[in-house]
Amino acid sequence: MSTDVKKRENIENSSYVVPTVDIRETENEYVLFADMPGVGKDGVEIVIANEELEIKGKVDANILEDEKSALLREFKMDDYYRKFTVGNNIDSEKVQAKMSNGVLELILPKKEELKPRKIEISAE
What we know:
Shape: elongated
Number of strands: 8
CATH topology: Immunoglobulin-like
CATH architecture: Sandwich
Distance between the termini: 41 Å
Number of helices: 1
Number of domains: 1
């Protein structure tokens, strides 16, 4: 899985923030964690197509409304966008996603034929 980042600042006439991501690889899967504060479960869109993984996170409208009345604002709450090249080694039918406290956890299982396997040796 490639971790090349293609930052997009103007998609659909909106500015986006590139979320920070940790990726771990095990024998059977990749596990991706993306920090997207202000994004709830319903605000996440994940698409795997053409050997690319695309993650979009929309900040909860209630948070944006509260931001308008702030006396001091030192950071901006923008939506999130990140894209990765994943190749053809992900079993997209078995991908799982969980959103908790602004952190997206994606489990991307490897295709069975690409997993390492142990060859049994028979004796004669």
